[in-house]
Amino acid sequence: MKIIVAGSSGLIGSRLVEKLDGQGHQVIRLRHGELIGSSSRGATWNPSASKVDLSQLGQVDAVINLAGEPIGTSRWTAPKRQKIVESRENGSRILVEAMSKMEKPPKCFLNGSAIGYYGDTGDSVVDEDRESGDGFLAEVCIRNEAAANKATALGVRVVHLRTGIVLAKNGGVLKKQLPLFAIGLGGKLASGKQYLSWVHIDDEVSGIIFALDNEISGPLNLTSPNPVTNAEFTKTLAAIMVRPSFLTVPKIALNTVMGAEITQEMLLVSQKVAPKKLVLSGFRFQYPNLEGALRNIISG
Q: What is the pLDDT of residues 152-184, one digit of tens each?
């Protein structure tokens, strides 16, 4: 297949492109920057300026959009919040507009979203049938998915990739946690009772390709079938690394360092998400359990 990938340099996108290349697909990387033309292997776009042109790329089978302003790297100031929203909503919107100008639109549009759509779900198990929750991240996901959904009017199959916490050695939460755990400074966040819906990077990528190859549409939870609490995650990681994990990071400290909003919606939010559609569609997780996933990542 001929596949356009936006966000191809990120943690998920880079691994996805590598795997698609290995399967023999023709991958076109949509690079961020000024609109200066295209080539057989790449094209440029500028979501903030609402510019993208796919007309020179010929017939395309699929578009995968994983681009967006990083969410958890700094405090959510007003300008940061605007960038987070616009990078996703505008990115989805202009891609759909570009598809509408193609002689023949792609068959499917896989658009990056997140389990932040559900808000804080406490101890309740939620799947793709759950309505949206409250909070800033839920609003971001709602607006992003609404923009992507407009591609359905073009006859394009749309999939919302609601990704959980991605576990990988070279990025995501583990990149920050592993050095701390290695010196015995790992610990649970506040009570540790909040649920984490995680996914191994290899299952994340395989899940995206599975959605590409199968007639799945609408929301798709990309999470392991076995979420754990923050306390369980901390204990498992410490045991694998043979290090203590007695510390507890209090909520007040998290608020001070990251801000109250990020603390509440990302660090202490409880989300027990089930990948119902993947399971019912026959997808097989390579790393369904946390211990196996962490051992693979740490030893890799």
A: 999 999 999 999 999 999 899 999 899 999 999
Question: What angle (nearest 5°) sits at the alpha carbon of residue 217, between those of residues 12 and 223?
Answer: 40
> ∠ at Cα 290 (7, 222), nearest 5°?
35
Tell me which CATH homologous superfamily contains domain 2-165+199-223+275-285. Answer: NAD(P)-binding Rossmann-like Domain (3.40.50.720)
How is the chain split into domains, by residue range?
A: 2-165+199-223+275-285
Please give the DSSP secondary-structure letter assigned to residue 132.
P
Concatenating the DSSP letter of every residue in 233-294 gives: HHHHHHHHHT----EEE-HHHHHHHH-HHHIIIIIS---EE--HHHHHTT---S--SHHHHH
218: left (phi over 0), alpha (psi -120 to 50) or beta: left
Mean pLDDT of 54-71: 89
Rounded Cα gap, residues 30 and 98, in angstroms:
13
Q: Which two tokens stand for residue 287?
A: 């790393």
In whole angstroms, how large is the CA radius of gyration of the chain? 19
DSSP per position, 139-178: HHHHHHHHHHHGGGGGT-EEEEEEE-EEEETTEHHHHHHH
What pLDDT score was predicted for residue 41? 57
* 256 phi, psi to nearest 5 deg: -65, -40
Distances 300 to 66, 169, 284 between C-alpha atoms, Å:
25, 8, 21
SS (H, E, C) 7-62: CCCCHHHHHHHHHHHHCCCEEEEEEECCCCCECCCEEEEEHHHCEECCHHHCCCCE
